[in-house]
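User: Predict the structure for this protein chain, please.
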Amino acid sequence: MAYVVTESCIKCKYTDCVDVCPVDCFREGPNMLVIDPDECIDCTLCVAECPVEAIYAEDDVPDNQREFIALNAELAKSWKPLIEKKEELPEAAEFSKVKDKRGLLQR
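Assistant: Here is the predicted structure, written as structure tokens:
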């Protein structure tokens, strides 16, 4: 079972989670991160580090976010690994409270 980055990450892209990942399983897209399910070792370290609570164990992903399980697996194949913390997006504070951001995802 892998961990999954969900909708809350879109247009925020905080990278605190990347800093604690022991296996470098995060992949970076234009305006969010995903977790490569083939690399994730289920250590849970990233969950507590996410300031927008976007990361869930695959079995705990809310029903209205289940599509992000497949989306993480798909995008992890084409997005580049991110192995160190970097600045969040400039609009992160504004978008951290926004719900229903799926339409804003950039591939």
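The longest helix spans residues 67-76.
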